[in-house]
Amino acid sequence: MYKTVSKKPDWLNSEPVKDIYSVSSCVSEDFADWINFWKHNGYWFFDHPSIIEKIAKENNISLVGMKLFFFKAYELQWTDQKWEKYSPDEAFTTNVQSPLKCTLEGFDIVTFCVQTAPECSPLSCNHMAEEIDVNSHCLLGSFAKAKQLIESDIFDDCEPGPYRIFEVYSVKNA
After folding, report:
1. Which one of 12, 50, 95, 96 has the lowest number of neighbouring Cβ atoms within 10 Å?
2. Is residue 156 within 8 Å of 142, Cβ to Cβ?
3. Per-residue pLDDT averaged across 119-132, rounded?
4. ω into residue 118 within 30 of 0, thus cis?
């Protein structure tokens, strides 16, 4: 996903945060309202950057100044106080091609109450980065920490789940 990375918003009182690399587009916006192009895969993301680049070219959308991310999701989601498997939407072809050069930036927790596109990232959207140790990109440092936090029910008063854990990578030389 190409995103416009936003600096830390004034309303987020978290000293380590410098910018927002969240999966959700609530703070750092996606390259476009991409769902309307119907080129996403069954996980409601894109299989390869070239698909996004083609959409952008065909629709006069500039990707200049945007950062390219690769998101890798844990295969289980937290719902009703338990982990359960989820699958890609079979109405869409899914053939994800992992980038050759990428850097792990951290882990995000994302809501999926509609079970399609990512909704909110409670670390930024719900100010949870003010209570939880996060890095300069408003992400968690480990998968184990993300899982432990979800299981502790600390996000119960945030957005409705289910919650999914994502590895967030910045991509080099797409």
Report:
1. 95
2. no
3. 96
4. no
